[in-house]
Amino acid sequence: MPEIPRCHQPTIEEFEERFAVPGLPVILTGITDHWPARSWTPEEMAERLGEVQVEVTPKNSTIEGTKSLSFANYVQLVLEGASEGDYLTSWCFRRDCPELLADFEVPLYFQDDWLEELPTLNDMMWLFLGAEGSGMGLHQDLGHTAAWNAQVTGLKEWALVAPEYEDYLYEGEVCAFKPNRVRHSKFRKAEVWRGEVRAGEVLFIPGAWWHQTRNLKTGFAITANFVNRCNYQKVLRCLREAEEPELYEMLKSVAERKINAWR
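^ that's the sequence the OP posted. Answer follows.
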């Protein structure tokens, strides 16, 4: 069982050569120390965000938006240990609370994000807050986009599986942390990368990789999916096969413009 490697402040060239281009996960360290977000606490954020409405995901599920409540009420449940594993995931905070953008910056490895240049913005930057014990089930991200996930506070455990083992994953029904070896016997053939991402560290998730999480300590995370020169071909292929013509044509147009600029 491979352990997700750590790499301290690599250059962009080193990151792309060792991880982005070959499509291998890595935990990046030493790149968020200056973020004001590193001092976020649930109590402080509840005061700042108050009655902003958010949606939560049930424990170990991938079904989002099953329950709506105010951010302050959700924090209260987390602090009281009464959240029942409900997990604030995929909150597109830029729409509701753009002021939070001042508390962090997109790591330089991911700043050339072609999704940000689409004529119709597909907002794929989110804020997460999960209590200890909460998590998401095994899943892939939309369009086989790659992602970065910054663990701002707290501690999270990850399990990642490369797409070539997809036939052994039971469409995500298996638990990668504690699989049922009788019900999901084929899962033993899958190679699972494991790692704990600490506060201040950033995980790179290659496109099309399956992943599952569980929070070992209550904490915030900021994450975004992205497309750039290292993964655009994979994403375009996925969108074409998934019959998403509008998004496919928009991204293809951005890619062609980028490629022509290189020549």
